[in-house]
Design a protein that fits this description.
By secondary structure, the chain is mainly alpha-helical. The protein folds into two domains: about 5-40; about 45-110, Arc Repressor Mutant, subunit A (Orthogonal Bundle). It has helices at about 5-10, 20-40, 45-60, 65-75, 80-90, and strands at about 95-100, 105-110. A two-stranded antiparallel sheet has the order 1-2. α1 (about 5-10) packs antiparallel against α2 (about 20-40), α3 (about 45-60) crosses α5 and α4 (about 65-75) crosses α5.
Length: about 120
């Protein structure tokens, strides 16, 4: 049982004294505030990856490119790292993914610049 679940259960239990429920509510608020503060601050890895994401987005155009294609253009990185950075870029709205048929491999994700409407 995690601390938030524990304090929530105590705060919602009507049979316990009010003092105990108030204490649990206060502790729950502190946990939520700490979580919000931590979520608002970018992680060390996110700061390290930001320039790499910008570099990757600079390589994209409106023709779909697979992570393997982009890995060949960015030396020193492997396909899983490039794919991970592209997923992060998609979450930020910097690129889009489409399905691309690759001969001998089947369907893979192709990455393009976002289509403006």
């Amino acid at each position: 049982m995690t601390r938030p679940v524990f304090f929530t259960a105590i705060a919602q239990n009507e049979t316990l004294p009010a003092e105990l429920r108030d204490f649990a509510s206060l502790q729950l608020e502190k946990i939520q505030a700490a979580n919000a503060k931590r979520a608002a601050k970018p992680s060390k890895k996110a700061l390290e990856n930001a320039p790499l994401i910008e570099q990757l987005v600079g390589l994209l155009n409106h023709e779909p490119q697979t992570a393997t294609d982009l890995t060949a253009r960015m030396e020193g990185f492997n396909v899983p790292k490039i794919a991970s950075l592209l997923v992060q870029a998609r979450k930020q709205g910097l690129c889009s993914s489409v399905d691309v048929k690759v001969k001998g491999k089947g369907t893979q994700k192709g990455w393009i610049l976002p289509v403006e409407e």
